[in-house]
Specification:
Elements: E1 3-4, E2 45-46, E3 48-50, E4 53-55, E5 62-67, E6 72-78, H1 82-101, H2 104-120, H3 122-133, H4 137-159, H5 162-165, E7 177-181, H6 187-200, E8 204-208, H7 215-227, E9 234-236, H8 241-248, E10 255-259, H9 262-272, E11 278-282, E12 288-291, H10 297-309, E13 321-325, H11 329-340, E14 345-346, H12 361-377, E15 380-382, E16 398-401, H13 408-411, E17 418-424, H14 427-435, E18 439-440, E19 442-446, H15 450-459, E20 464-467, E21 482-483, E22 486-487
Parallel strand pairs: 1-14, 2-6, 7-8, 7-10, 8-9, 10-11, 12-13, 12-19, 13-17, 16-17, 19-20
Antiparallel strand pairs: 3-4, 5-6, 11-22, 15-16, 18-21
Bound molecules: NADP nicotinamide-adenine-dinucleotide phosphate and magnesium ion.
């Protein structure tokens, strides 16, 4: 394992990203290894985006957004209080009739334009996301920005067809003003997941990004304006948890869409009880990733790596609970540990980096506490020796063997590059262990037998199940969980329902 800061590696990106919508923009420079940070085009300070204008926060408070790979300040971001949130909700209310009653084909055209601009500015957005979040540029470039554009494209396509898919005589009505609160792990993509279906349905929005990652949402405000989204239709209120709470509890919001931790989700559900506001919750997970002895193990190892180390494991659907059939456990662990030696940890702007920085000091402390908990519980901590950068927040790829189902590292969401390995003997035992969780967001299966895969899928209590692959996303497929992973679906046709009466 090496830390890659200044690489002259000849393997630099021979391949261009495959874009589902259009040819990749010519602006990508494939010749150099380290991406140019100045492309992010940062301002020193950002105000709030309300009613189509940059507005100073009432209390004149700003906070720093830092680069988690260097701990350097990137920019200052406005801290919105209740007065600012109220201003944003009023703007969204005023903008509602105009947006709702606009000919649907006009709304569609605007959303297609958003998708197009996201593609055109993909390099800038990817660099900005990587700087603010710490994720490898390869992921922000090939996953986050691509899928964000795809989401707007997909929902733009529904905009003028909504009435045709409802029962005859029924008209698609928006819910109204939507308050949307998103986390820091996929900042731009979560903004797109929230805004695209809401806008397609004719709603207006107030979006609250996570405190540590507001910058791409603020850049998106510029893009929405350029695409022709009228003032007030989307408002962006940056700040901390209390900003989110002010939005959730604002009396003139019709619907709340929240993605984040189960703890905050529960709090929100309690505070909305009896208000009549609509609610959807996308919360945590502890996905079971099942490996049967008939699986192609080399491919399964790639799936496991993708499942747990993608985005430093800070993924709600991460395959964090590996369930391996006992007969292949040793072989699989050997292959996995060997593969982990090749994971490159380091500068997220390096196109060769596989594992970037942890998003915040707080999140790193949480992950490190689970590393201690795992050892204390008697599991064996394994993984490559890894030289980590001196500044910034870093965690080497790790796995625990000897994990039992009741250990905290087997039941609680760590949200980091830490895999817990358990075993099973029979398919029934696999199902029982997989479903033995408070969560039910996602799961994965590796097996060569199609019949076994389908049988298992039916019995797994998870909103998303991947077979012989992992962490694959598409705007047309619904995503969401059961149990403490929340309710409601995002993506696909199902993702429109929560935004229509
Ligand atoms: P979090 O602490 O719950 O924060 C999520 C968002 O809620 C942030 O914008 C946060 O603001 C805001 N917030 C905090 N307290 C609030 C309150 N009392 N009322 C309203 N809003 C409040 O979660 P996180 O640590 O950012 O994200 C990680 C979690 O999200 C993980 O558990 C993960 O599984 C889950 N997640 C789920 C999905 C999914 O689709 N199911 C996707 C991604 C992440 P601040 O950041 O400013 O505090
Ligand atoms: Mg940041």
């Amino acid at each position: 394992m090496t830390r890659v800061q200044e690489s002259s590696d000849p393997r630099v990106e021979p391949k261009r990203p495959v874009h589902p919508l259009a040819a990749p923009p010519e602006s990508w420079d494939y010749a150099t290894s380290i991406e140019d940070a100045s492309l992010a085009n940062l301002r020193d300070r950002y105000d709030l985006w309300i009613d189509g204008e940059w507005v100073k926060p009432a209390k004149k408070l700003w906070f720093e957004s830092i680069n988690p790979s260097t701990e350097q300040t990137l920019s200052e971001v406005a801290h919105a209080g209740p007065t600012d949130v109220d201003k944003a909700v009023r703007a969204a209310r005023r903008a509602l009739p105009g947006w709702r009653d606009m000919p649907a084909s006009h709304r569609a055209r605007i959303l297609f334009a958003v998708s197009r601009l996201l593609q055109e500015r993909s390099r800038e957005l990817a660099v900005l996301e990587t700087l603010d979040n710490g994720k490898p540029i390869r992921e922000s470039r090939d996953v986050d920005v691509v899928l964000a554009a795809q989401h707007f494209f997909y929902y733009a396509g529904w905009t003028d067809k909504l009435d045709h898919v409802l029962p005859a005589g029924r008209k698609a009505e928006p819910i109204g003003v939507c308050g949307q609160v998103i986390p820091w792990n996929f900042p731009l993509l979560m903004a797109a997941w929230k805004l695209a279906p809401a806008l397609a349905g004719g709603n207006t929005c107030v979006l609250k990004p996570a405190e540590t990652t507001s910058l791409t949402a603020l850049r998106l405000a510029e893009i929405l304006e350029e695409a022709g989204v009228p003032p007030g239709v989307v408002n962006i209120v940056t700040g901390a948890g209390e900003t989110g709470a002010a939005l959730v509890n604002h009396p003139d919001v019709d619907k709340i869409a929240f993605t984040g931790s189960t703890d905050v989700g529960k709090l929100i559900q309690k505070s909305l009880a009896g208000t009549g506001k609509r609610l959807t919750l996308e919360l945590g997970g502890k996905a079971a990733h099942l490996i049967f002895d008939d699986a192609p193990l080399d491919q399964a190892v790639e799936g496991i790596i993708q499942g747990i180390y993608f985005n430093q494991g800070q993924v709600c659907c991460a395959g964090s609970r590996l369930l391996v059939q006992e007969s292949v456990e040793r072989q699989l662990i050997d292959l996995l540990l060997a593969r982990m030696q090749n994971i490159r940890v380091g500068n997220p702007l390096d196109k060769n980096t596989d594992l970037g920085a942890i998003n915040s000091e707080e999140q790193l402390a949480k992950i490190e506490s689970y590393l201690e908990i795992g050892e204390h519980e008697g599991a064996t901590r394994r993984g490559p020796q890894c030289e980590l950068p001196a500044s910034g927040y870093w965690c080497a790829p790790t796995l625990f063997t000897g994990v039992t189902p009741t250990m905290r590292i087997a039941t609680e969401e760590i949200f980091g590059p830490v895999l817990s390995v358990l075993t099973f003997r029979t398919p029934d035992e696999a199902i029982e262990k997989a479903n033995n969780s408070l969560y039910g967001l996602s799961a994965g299966i590796w097996s060569d037998k199609g019949s076994k895969v389908f049988r298992m899928i039916e019995k797994l209590r998870a909103g998303v199940v991947w077979a012989n692959t992992y962490n694959k996303f598409d705007a047309s497929s619904p995503f969401g969980g059961y149990k403490e992973s929340g309710f409601g679906r995002e993506g696909g046709w199902h993702g429109l329902f929560p935004y229509l009466k």
